[in-house]
Amino acid sequence: MSKKPKAPATPALAILDAAGVSYRTHSYEHDAAASIGFGLETAAVLGVDPARVFKTLMTRVDGQLVTAVVPASGLLNLKSLAAAVGGKKAEMAAPAQAERATGYVVGGISPLGQKRRHRLVIDTSARHHQTILVSGGRRGLSLELNADDLAAAAMTEVDTSSATAANVDQGTPGVVFAPVSRA
After folding, report:
1. Reduced to 3 DSSP states, what percent helix, strand and coil does the chain have, rounded to the nearest 5?
2. What is the model's pTM?
3. Of 91, 97, 124, 175, which residue is 20 to 30 A from 181 by alpha carbon distance?
4. Domain-located, residue 38
5. Residue 78: inside a domain, yes or no?
6. What is the pLDDT of residues 68-107, one digit of tens each?
7. Domain count, the chain
């Protein structure tokens, strides 16, 4: 009797596998008492430059959810984010709203494999590195990959539960690289 291939641990991994994108996983035990933030904790535990670790932030631009991927060492510039997607006003989404919209928990939100596809803005600094690290879909799981490969996987992303247009937010233009972070 042959063994069934093991299913990927998270929807983000399933997306990358389906897209044929090259990536590495990095796992560590998340410290719930850490107060430096999930991205900076990842950098410290894995011994990686914080400028290469990117955090995934859920925002609202003119009422529509937008996913922003910015360096853990910086802050999201909300005005720049709004401008990048042709909007006027941006704000952070509430944590509960981010969790409902993505299917992931805060601190483990991946830019890939979310319950619904949202506009994705990746800070241009991601292209300054051969590889970056983003959340793999749970706390303590990071994915290391090229920024352009991340964008390509996001553009070809198909919801793993049902490949229907209902899983894509209206007006989703795909992926934008834009300078949306600040120190």
Report:
1. 30, 30, 45
2. 0.85
3. 97
4. no
5. yes
6. 999 998 999 999 999 999 999 999 999 999 999 999 999 8
7. 1
- Residues belonging to the chain: 183
- Can you tell me which residue has the tokens 């859920």? 58
Burial letters 134-160, b for 16+ CB under 10 A, else e: bbbbbbbbbbbbbbebbbbbbeebebe
Residue 100, SS3 per DSSP: helix
Radius of gyration in angstroms for the set of CA atoms belonging to the chain, rounded to a whole number: 16
Task: Give the range of the structural domain holding residue 79, as residue numbers without chain letter.
Answer: 52-160+174-178
Q: Where residue 71 sits, what CATH number does that domain have? A: 3.90.960.10
Coil, helix or strand for 1? coil
Task: Give the Cα separation of 1 and 10 in Å (integer).
Answer: 26
